[in-house]
Specification:
The protein is α/β, with parallel strands linked by helices. The chain is built from 15 helices and 31 strands. Strand 17 and strand 18 (310-311) form a beta hairpin.
Length: 669
Amino acid sequence: MAKSADNKKTKSASDLPENGTLKTEGQELNAVETVSRFTDFDIHLFRQGKHFKLYEKLGSHVMEHKGVVGTYFAVWAPNATYISVIGNFNGWNKSGHSLAPRWDSSGIWEGWIPNVGVGEVYKYYIVSQTGEHLEKSDPFALWCEVAPKTASIVWDTWYEWGDSDWMKVRKEKNKLNAPISVYEVHLGSWQRDPSDPLRFLTYKEIAASLVPYVKEMGFTHVELMPVMEHPYPPSWGYQITGYFSCTARHGTPQELMYLIDQLHQAGIGVYVDWVPSHFPGDLHGLYRFDGTALYEHEDPRKGYHPDWKSYIFNYGRNEVRSFLISNAIFWLDRYHTDGLRVDAVASMLYLDYSRKHGEWIPNEFGGRENLEAISLLREMNVAAYTEFPDIQTIAEESTAFPGVSRPVFVGGLGFGMKWMMGWMNDTLKYFQLDPAFRRWHQDQLTFSLVYSFSENFMLPFSHDEVVYGKKSLINKMPGDEWQKFANLRLMFTYMFTHPGTKLLFMGGEFGQASEWNFERSLDWHLLEQAPNMGLKDCVKALNQLYKDEHALFDHSFSSEGFEWIDTQDRENSVLVYARKGLDPSQSLIIALNLTPLPRKGYRVGVLSEGSWQEIFNSDSETFGGSGIINYDPVSSEAHRWHGRANSLLLDLPPMGAVVLKKKGAKKLL
């Protein structure tokens, strides 16, 4: 068993009294000693914005000093005139345990308090230069009270990991030419306790059902929407106050580690959402932490986000850069996560994002690009991949900013992948159309291949598409119930056979009927109905197809892996294309019939002569379809079609997709 990155186990919560306070005979409860975990080099790196493991230094750390167990506290607040630690252990006495500023003008206040251990609740009491009296949570706290309470809790990240087998192979599972199919999960609403729908399940309870479900469905990874502490549930976790603290709504840090460990032991990777773009103005959080705009910009034209009514990090302040990059590294290090999905990157890249003329300040060259944020993202990616070369970082970025997923050394931002927002918007617009009108909009499906290989794209049907009146995926589809489910099976088949990795938000895989509601469980009872179970089985089969067929992932981000066969049959609304892998004999042909009319004897040009076998059909009766299947292998004819010397005749199912493979093709070793 491997231990976490903590140097050693000090004390666990089970070792302590209920109030978390350690009593040591002969020690004064209110004593504070000047003890430091910082070296001069640490301070140098911190000031330069190059300290990427600040969580080992700042915050609260249980440690022995002179043979006594206590807690070392360190906080960055350069504009404070007085700081003390307040908590249950001293009756929230503001003058009992004052910290001392370091001699080096780093702005760090520190001190060691005996008899305080794991489980103790605390805050920092700060007096600003203008005389404000503030009570702040610890920016580096490892755990916090359950909201709406706001105090920090002394904790550690010691855990006996059991995922060594996964960690040895995750490089192969995470590489860009591997099949990556992501199941996006909001832990608070994936499931709730049926006997008490208002109660959040614990991380361990979630593990008991989520792990086998994801494994059964064949997803290769899960993406957890923000698991960091946040005060406002309707923010879904994107308004964070505890960047180093997992949300206590579901349990302790060790219980979240257990969930990740169990996923890893089942062969499932874990990405987590990371939010370096903004933070809320809650008074106990980062906002005006020492009475000044410490983490954010003072000027609202750079420091306030008009869309989210939140505050933007000061990316040009070196200490803030150390904070953010340390936070990214923390989740990869202490929680063994396999990657970060970085939220709202577009809002970071542009100074005029969601701002009118006169509401933003150009950069030093007169442009709209946020040069400091660009620099931060590049440095974060370099640091993350240097420390953990077998992870992935994924940008949610919706503009045409060049090189988001290109290496830093060629001028890119250095992300491993980027969400393909244009593809998502065009695809949903197309599939919401009545099939009678699709013939005039076929370019909405074909246009994505014009730019598909300009970035390493992930195809997302995320949580953002099923809220705020946008309808659930199943209810975006036109027609009666049968057509809705057929349309969705067809759209998912198009997704899984399109170049790029995949992401699907929870509930979409079985046809969740209502919009996503963060306050309630998914409607699992729908799986008692045949259409929903059929859709679930279809997604399960698509995941298996994706993992089995090298043609679908060998060249996910290269034009070598894709070839159009026909884009011109607008009259019948049929598209035909090929996917190709490293072994040409493994190539696939995909035909989409985007109308409810079956096409009998439809001629398709093929890559080579021979016999072709149907290996997937979204219209299978198993999935709830009509069962128009090409059961027998279809032999090609020397009949020129679609500009090719050979072709074959297929039966195309209504609102359905078929996938063909050369009969007898041996799998690539």
